[in-house]
Amino acid sequence: MNGGVYFMKSRITILSSIIALALALVTISCYLVVQNVGSVHQIFFPMVTAVVDSADSMEEWERISFNDKNDLTFDSIFWDKEITIHANSGSYILLRVKDVNGDLVVDEFQVSPGNSAKLDWLKNDEKYFFEIKATKGKFFINAT
């Protein structure tokens, strides 16, 4: 009788170990897919980029394009709704946000290189247009 109890305990231990190992492998595999497959990574950590290269100082508001699109739509719950200016950008920039009707949604705000601005009040699934004023230089702008 003791041999049967020992056999059952070792069987349960082996089965528990196999389940734990399988769960760990699935978790690691999912992590690697999200981290290394661009289209999957873009779903969970969306980011678009605009590059503005101004030969002269921009005195008037100019529309910027993120990933060659004129508008920006926060189309999933994973957007942080944050604008970041890359640390190697020329200087600070002024931005403002308009909706599809051309109405001002967010008035002029300043972002310095290496810093971010949160835009939590922007709504999901609506098109927004970003405009920039900046001094002479090259600027890398990320929306996450």
Automatic annotation (TrEMBL):
UniProt lineage: Bacteria, Bacillati, Bacillota, Bacilli, Bacillales
Name under which the protein is recorded: Uncharacterized protein
Keyword Transmembrane appears in the UniProt entry: yes
TM annotation in the entry: 12-34
Keyword field: Membrane, Transmembrane, Transmembrane helix
